[in-house]
Structures are given as C-alpha cells and as structure tokens.
C-alpha cells in the first residue's frame, strides 16, 4: 500500500513527482525518530507554522504531536513561544490553534 500524500502536498505530488519525492524524503528525515522524539519535532513545527501565518499547518502539526504522544498541555505550552517571539497579535491570529487543541481527543 502506497503512503498517503498529505492533503497540502497533493497539488505538488500531482504536478511535479520529482520535487514531491525530495520534499517527502526531507519531511521524513525532519520528523523521524532521532535525538528528538517526533512529538517534540511536531510541536516545533506547530510553532513555526503559527509564526508563519499558517494556522492550518499549525493545527495539523498539533494533531500530529498529540498523536505522537504529546499532551494538550504540552501543545498549549509550546504555543506560548509564539507570544514570546511574535507578540499578542500573532497569538490572536492563532486562536484557532488553541481551540483545535482543546477539541482534540
């Protein structure tokens, strides 16, 4: 069974298979088990997406972090970095991420 292409990368996978293969390999390297557990890598990605105005990506990363063993409390605490680094306007822009974390099972 082939690995499912993440929804946000489907246009790339369908248009440029060679570049998608490189992106997929890189994401696999970034998020695999290593010196940092995957849950922490996903939390870091969540913060990076939130700071890059990519709320949907931040929500997806929070979900992946929780699925990898992070707690909701850890995800919420990681989002505090957004405030520390980018201020209240960025926190307000990412309120949907907080809401999504609270609604996760």
Query: Gap between N and C termini, in Å?
Result: 27 Å
Helix-and-strand structural type: mainly alpha
Give the % helix.
over 70%
Poorly predicted runs are: none
Radius of gyration: 14 Å
Strand content: under 5%
Largest sheet descriptor? none
Total helical elements: 7
- Total count of strands: 0
| Overall average pLDDT | 94
Q: What would the principal axes of the Cα set say about the shape?
A: globular
Which sequence of SSEs, written as H and E, runs from N to C? HHHHHHH
Characterise this structure.
Helices cover 74% and strands 0% of the residues. The chain is globular. It is mainly alpha-helical and 105 residues long. Helix 3 runs antiparallel to helix 4 and helix 3 packs parallel to helix 5 (72-86). The chain starts with 9 loop residues before the first helix and ends with a helix.
Highlighted features:
globular; mainly alpha; 105 residues
Quick gist of this model?
With 105 residues, the protein is mostly helical. It has helices spanning 10-15, 17-31, 38-51, 55-67, 72-86, 88-93, 95-103. The radius of gyration is 14 Å and the shape is globular.
Draw up the topology in text:
Elements: H1 10-15, H2 17-31, H3 38-51, H4 55-67, H5 72-86, H6 88-93, H7 95-103
């Amino acid at each position: 069974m082939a690995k499912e292409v993440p929804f946000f990368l489907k246009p790339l996978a369908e248009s440029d298979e060679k570049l998608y293969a490189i992106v997929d390999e890189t994401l696999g390297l970034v998020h695999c088990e290593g010196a940092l557990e995957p849950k922490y890598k996903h939390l870091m990605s969540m913060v990076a997406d939130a700071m890059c105005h990519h709320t949907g990506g931040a929500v997806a990363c929070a979900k992946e972090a929780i699925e990898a063993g992070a707690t909701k409390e850890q995800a919420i605490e990681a989002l505090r970095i957004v405030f520390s680094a980018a201020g209240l306007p960025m926190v307000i822009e990412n309120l949907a991420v907080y809401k999504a974390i609270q609604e996760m099972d």
